[in-house]
Amino acid sequence: QVQLVESGGGLVQAGGSLRLSCAASGRTFSTYTMKWFRQAPGKEREFVAAITWSYGDTWYSDSVKGRFTISRDSAKNLVYLQMNSLKPEDTAVYYCYTNRAALGLDYWGQGTQVTVSS
């Protein structure tokens, strides 16, 4: 069983920064891809960023590219999302996610609220 716990959300003014953390536990993650998603009120959940645990390869949605940075600390089983130049449209609940596609298993954290005021 995999557990994911997010932290670091809060209220910030437009142009500010926040760093989200995702603490992963329950098994070895060396072969996993870790992802961040977000869901704004009245909208579908959308992909934000991803990182491979083993090599640190990263991907970003176009809406956050150049402003957000995903990283991981393998020794601590932590995944980070550094968010800079925040905009009001970044306001959402941010979720950490991973999966075992071969087994059809999805793992989500409980989410952390990010609110960006204009």
Main attributes of the structure:
single chain, 118 residues, mainly beta, 7-stranded mixed sheet, 4-stranded antiparallel sheet, 11 strands, 0% helix, globular
Could you walk me through the main structural features you see in this protein, from its secondary elements to its overall organization?
The chain is an all-beta fold. It is 0% helix and 55% strand. The chain has strands at 3-7, 10-13, 18-25, 33-39, 46-52, 58-60, 68-73, 78-83, 92-100, 105-108, 112-117. Strands 2, 4, 5, 6, 9, 10 and 11 form a 7-stranded mixed β-sheet that branches. A 4-stranded antiparallel β-sheet has the order 1-3-8-7, with no helix packed on it. Strand 4 and strand 5 form a beta hairpin. The model has no long low-confidence stretch (mean pLDDT 94).
Question: Layout of helices and strands, plus pairs?
Answer:
Elements: E1 3-7, E2 10-13, E3 18-25, E4 33-39, E5 46-52, E6 58-60, E7 68-73, E8 78-83, E9 92-100, E10 105-108, E11 112-117
Parallel strand pairs: 2-11
Antiparallel strand pairs: 1-3, 3-8, 4-5, 4-9, 5-6, 7-8, 9-10, 9-11
